[in-house]
Amino acid sequence: MAYNGEPKAVFPDTIRFSSLWNPVGSRETSKNKTVNLTKRQQAILVGTLLGDGYLQKTGSKNARLRLEHGEKQKEYLHWKAAQFPKLFNSKPIFIEREHPKTKRTYAYWRLQSHATPELGKWCALFYTNGAKHIPKNLVDLLTESIALATWYMDDGYYDPKQKHSFIYLGRVTREEADIARDAIEKNFSLAPRVYDKKEKGFALFFPVAETKKLHELIRGDIIGSMRYKLSLTP
User: Fold this and answer.
1) 68, 8 in Cβ contact below 8 A?
2) Which of its termini does the chain have fewer beta carbons within 10 Å around, N or C?
3) Domain parsing of the chain, residue ranges
4) Nearest 10 degrees: CA dihedral of 234, 156, 116, 15?
5) Is the sign of the CA dihedral 192, 156, 53, 40 positive or negative?
């Protein structure tokens, strides 16, 4: 969870779309259409919401999933969309945003899902008054290795020199960071430490021995373009 609430780039912007696809994204699904997520899809969604995914509430019960990734992670964006074929039926759009102060241009790909009551239920779990948070019952949600792998692909970092890893949590509370650590420890027998990275917020630190166990656990679920986040040797 590298950030809370709205997607990262929330400053006034100049946007260039790479195609004529609707920049707002997909609209509501049919009122009579129900999307039921499989156990695997739920696990991937948990990892996505702990990471860079953003749920936008649309009405009292529905929500849509917004995915945003840089050019180097375009394959990863397509992989995520492919895991939820009933939620996504449009193509990603390319967006450029210019920061009004630094004038630096930020470029990334965005994909938005249909809005459904199923995602509305997940929105209620991960958001309070529009702000994303780590749920207190995370230990009941983060139970599958694919969920941890997805979270790591989103917010994980591996230092090949020091051979340790981090999962960045962003500006969550210390209580939320402890909830994340405890869930990983209980469900995956890993022992990360909570680090306060000051301006970067909290992070989960995996020392060398714990990194080896973490990478062994999630290696089979890491897609090709994201394997740079893993150690070279199992």
Assistant:
1) yes
2) C
3) 39-127, 138-229
4) -130
5) negative
**DSSP single-letter state for residue 97:** E
As a whole number of angstroms, the distance between CA 92 and CA 112 comes to 8
CA gap 27, 12 in Å, rounded: 24
Tell me which fold the domain 39-127 belongs to: Endonuclease I-creI (3.10.28)
d(CA 8, CA 99): 12
Per residue in 40-88, pLDDT tens? 999 999 999 999 999 999 988 999 999 999 988 999 999 999 999 999 9
CA atoms of 192 and 77, how far apart (whole Å)? 27
Strands 105-116 and 62-69: antiparallel
Equal fold, 39-127 vs 138-229: yes
Number of H helices, E strands in the chain: 7, 10
29, HSE (Cβ side, Cα atoms, 13 Å): 23
